[in-house]
Amino acid sequence: MQRVLIVEDSKVVQQILRHLASQHLDVEIDFAWSLKETQALLESQHYTLALVDLTLPDASDGEVVQLTLSRNVPTVVLTSKIDEYSRQQMLEMGVVDYVIKDNRDSYLYAIKLVSRLLRNEGCQALIADDSMISRAVMRQMLEKQLFTVFEAQDGEQALNMLNAKPEIKLLLTDYAMPTMDGFELVKAVRNSRGRDDLAIIGLSGAGSHGLSAKFIKYGANDFLTKPFMNEEFHCRVMQTMDQLNLIADIKEYAHRDFLTGLYNRRYFCQHMDKVLKNKPDQFTLALLDLDHFKAINDEYGHLGGDKVLSQAAELLNSSFNHCLVARVGGEEFAVLMPGNDLSVAKDSCQDFRERFANTQFMIQDQALHCTLSVGIARCDKATLSDVMRAADNALYQAKEAQRNCVMVSES
């Protein structure tokens, strides 16, 4: 579990940071006022990241920063002033970044920076560079930002690693490499992975005119000229990952049903199309429809009906957490289950039907019981329409059989 330590001796500033953290961070947070409190917390807890004030009443020369770094806690520094000497001193100490606290916006920036770094944890990055020294420097900088880092000595090795590790989300590639240069690598990568799936930052030495434009035209998201400053590298990586995550958030939002949080019909159909093309004989589809839902809307209003649908979605998620679950209609849900054994799928749906019927749904402090009908079909048909039609026909049979039952399509 991620946990953050924030060290600040000003009551006003700490109050501001507490408020902003509650809005932007969904992790455990501990606050300390002094070096002594920080020591005690570090002895009792493991921290993913620390946001610390450079000067404290009992540590006026940055001792708290040295302490958190000595415990291998990536550290972002808050400071009221900065000069070239103190800046260089902090970077040599190994801090991730520093934030000058001169207005309220700086505190918001600091908290958002912490949020960005926490999101990096577990994210995989690949460095493609034929220079061992360059790779080592960039690896150290990326690991401070909580990335899991891999290295490649040339473009061909990098391409093989990207094909073998689709989880890699960031590629930093030098231009001049043997076997396959940075341009060829970017072009080859973009044939299979778009800008919304993999972020690429091109690199090259100073004096290489026009390379930045070429890199970006070939498909890179950004470009850095070597040698680069620590802060420039940090900001470029953070901005690039922010863009990638923003696209991912937008796509996720577009794929979700607003009321229940389940996947929507559009995403479900797109996923089913892929299943039918690649592994049609390894899945089973179940369509579930709430019985007499119109009567619930009539008695409790649409807000009451919405509460039932939301609670039904929670039950589906908890019962079919290994499956793809979606809301495909007003009160109709779909579950894509791994395996093509209809008896196993029927048993799973029967168990859920019983659990559903025994659940108390709460509307305006009133408890009511609902039932549902289920239709099941194998995903071995030619098209999505054929599979949906088979499951829908089985669902219709369940409705005709007085509802609250499970039917299986044998066609």
- Which structural class best describes the helix and strand composition? alpha/beta
CATH architecture of the largest domain: 2-Layer Sandwich
The tally of beta strands, per DSSP, is 18
Globular, elongated, flat, extended or rod-shaped: what is the shape?
Answer: flat
Strand order of the largest sheet: 11-13-14-12-17-18
Strand content: 15-25%
Ends distance: 48 Å
**The CATH C-level class name of the largest domain:** Alpha Beta
The whole-number mean of residue pLDDT values reads: 92
- What's the name of the CATH homologous superfamily of the largest domain? Reverse transcriptase/Diguanylate cyclase domain
The quaternary state of the protein chains shown equals single chain
Put simply, the count of helices is 14
- The CATH topology of the largest domain is given as Alpha-Beta Plaits
Poorly predicted regions: none
Rg is: 27 Å
Number of folding domains? 3
Helix content range of the residues, please?
40-55%
Report the major sheet. 6 strands, mixed
Keywords: Phosphoprotein
Protein name: diguanylate cyclase
GO molecular function, one term: diguanylate cyclase activity
EC number: 2.7.7.65
Describe this structure in words.
With 411 residues, this protein is of the alpha/beta class. The chain has 3 domains: 3-119, Response regulator (Rossmann fold), CATH 3.40.50; 122-255, Rossmann fold (3-Layer(aba) Sandwich); 263-408, Reverse transcriptase/Diguanylate cyclase domain (Alpha-Beta Plaits), CATH 3.30.70.270. It is 48% helix and 22% strand. The protein has helices at residues 11-24, 35-44, 63-70, 84-93, 104-120, 132-144, 155-164, 182-190, 211-218, 230-255, 265-278, 293-319, 342-357, 384-400, and strands at residues 3-7, 28-32, 49-53, 75-79, 97-100, 124-128, 148-152, 168-174, 199-205, 222-226, 263-264, 283-290, 324-327, 332-338, 361-363, 366-368, 372-378, 406-408. A 6-stranded mixed sheet has the order 11-13-14-12-17-18, with helices on both faces. The radius of gyration is 27 Å and the shape is flat. It starts with a strand and ends with a strand. The mean pLDDT is 92.
